[in-house]
Amino acid sequence: MARELDLNMSIIENISPLHFDHKLGFYGDYENKDDILKLTEVKELSIFQIAKFKKSSVDINQIIFNNLKLPTKSLTVTSDNIVRILWVGPDTWLIISKDKKLIENIHSIFNENDFAVTDISQSRAVIEISGSKSKDVLKKGSPLNFNNDMFKPNNCANTTYNGINIIIDFISEKPDCFNLFALRSFGGSFYHSITDSCLEYGYEAI
Fold first, then answer.
1. Residue 101 and residue 153 in contact, taking contact as beta carbons nearer than 8 Å
2. 17-43+123-205: CATH superfamily
3. CA atoms of 204 and 206, how far apart (whole Å)
4. Is the confidence at residue 9, as pLDDT, over 50?
5. Ranges of CATH 3.30.70.1520 domains, the chain
6. What's the pTM?
7. What are the phi and psi torsion angles at 15 (to 5°)?
8. 67-102 residue pLDDT tens
9. Rounded CA gap, 70 and 114, in Å?
10. How far apart are CA 39 and CA 105, in angstroms?
11. For the ranges 12-26, 73-87, 166-180, which has the lowest average pLDDT?
12. What residues form DSSP beta bridges with 97?
């Protein structure tokens, strides 16, 4: 019985946040279009929140993670092909990577006397949206200013989308590509809100 329970728990843990919502295929007004939106659920990400304690005297500019400095300006991201570090508030960052071994080193760099390190990997639903109409979709539900001179690649922001709190990470352009983070408990609602906004332009769920 105990072995069966452990197996069932393992299966539950491996179910992604959007497992029952993200269905592959083409949707909306996609016919006879060369440039439709593409949506995918980003799975198996390690996401750690790093918060510097107020009492800490550590110099943030001296902290290096995978050869990346922590961004110190609001709305900015430092990144390479493996790791993205998002500024999400004063002395607060998200470190995001698919490299599990790399993330294992996080506690050796951010010691418990200076930082609170929280693994939030299982508590977030993550959607990648790409295509020339991506910003138009985001504008439908978010009050964020998406003008080119205000929100660029390697920018990020806390915002809302039709009342749901999310983080938007601008990955790249040509075509525009964004990662969208929502609380797992709101993942289904957020997914359906985003996909509903995509129908006008047509999208492929991949």
1. no
2. Probable tRNA modification gtpase trme; domain 1 (3.30.1360.120)
3. 6
4. no
5. 46-121
6. 0.91
7. -80, 125
8. 999 999 999 999 999 999 999 999 999 999 999 887
9. 14
10. 31
11. 12-26
12. 46, 83
CA-to-CA distance for 183 and 96, rounded, in angstroms?
15
Report how far residue 47's alpha carbon sits from residue 125's, in angstroms, rounded to the nearest whole number: 11
Q: Which long-range contacts (CB under 8 A, 24 or more apart) does 9-14 make?
A: 13/122
In whole numbers, what is the pLDDT of the chain averaged over residues?
A: 92
Q: What is the pLDDT of residues 111-147, one digit of tens each?
A: 999 999 999 999 999 999 999 999 999 999 999 999 8
Residue 43 CA, chain-centre distance (Å), reads 10
Second-level CATH architecture of 46-121: 2-Layer Sandwich (3.30)
- Cα distance between residue 38 and residue 205, in whole Å: 6
Tell me the CA end-to-end span of the chain in Å, nearest whole number: 38
Phi, psi of 131, deg, nearest 5: 135, 160
Strands (DSSP E) contained in 44-112 are 46-52, 64-65, 68-69, 77-79, 83-89, 92-97
Dist CA 184 CA 41 (whole Å): 12
| Contact (Cβ atoms closer than 8 angstroms) between residue 37 and residue 137 | yes
> Residue 34 — pLDDT band, cuts 50, 70, 90?
confident
> What number is the average pLDDT over the span 156-175?
97
Delimiting residues of CATH 3.30.1360.120 domain(s) in the chain = 17-43+123-205
Spatial contact of 146 and 75, defined as CB atoms under 8 Å apart:
no
